[in-house]
């Protein structure tokens, strides 16, 4: 099923000098919503990446902290980069939306500002030495953040994105699961 912001590929009638058709040109069917659609696509893609990194972190959290040092550090910082970049993009997206869409997002108990603040506090609290000294407490704290993030992403996919004109169809969203 095609949604309201689907893209079509248009082939140029003119052939390139080698006789092959030129590369396709993407055009939005509804140009007035094109930018929002592209941002939603990017946010959905971010959700999929964040879910993959979160799954990797959850697997590592089930192990003894001392034995997973470098693997865990790489996953932790990949998650940090992705989440903070995603949060910045999400804020930009919400600023550009209709009031009703942005309002429903900010009224959520897991709104973007609360999640970002909670994650930044987590980063400030947990240095490498603190993580090593209090691995079980760290694991509990990070699991809570990962749970809140998953709730936030599901909320966006089910409630925020449709208000912006697109149904939720992310790979990780419940509607697209078999």
List the keywords.
178 residues, mainly alpha, 4% strand
General description of the model:
- With 178 residues, the protein is mainly α.
- It has one domain.
- Helices cover 63% and strands 4% of the residues.
- It has helices spanning 34-61, 69-95, 99-106, 112-125, 128-133, 135-163, and strands at 7-10, 25-28.
- Strands 1-2 form a two-stranded antiparallel sheet.
- Helix 3 (99-106) runs antiparallel to helix 6 (135-163) and helix 4 packs antiparallel against helix 6 (135-163).
- It is elongated.
- It starts with 6 loop residues before the first strand and ends in a 15-residue tail after the last helix.
- Residues 1-32 and 166-178 have low confidence and may be disordered.
Radius of gyration: 20 Å
Q: Which strand-content bin applies to the residues? A: under 5%
Please state the structural category: mainly alpha
How helical, in percent, are the residues?
55-70%
Q: From N to C, what is the helix and strand string? A: EEHHHHHH
Gist of the model:
With 178 residues, the chain is mainly alpha-helical. The chain is built from 6 helices and 2 strands; from the N terminus they run E-E-H-H-H-H-H-H. It is 63% helix and 4% strand.
Indicate the topology.
Layout: E1 7-10, E2 25-28, H1 34-61, H2 69-95, H3 99-106, H4 112-125, H5 128-133, H6 135-163
Antiparallel strand pairs: 1-2
Helix pairs in contact: 1-2, 1-6, 3-6, 4-6
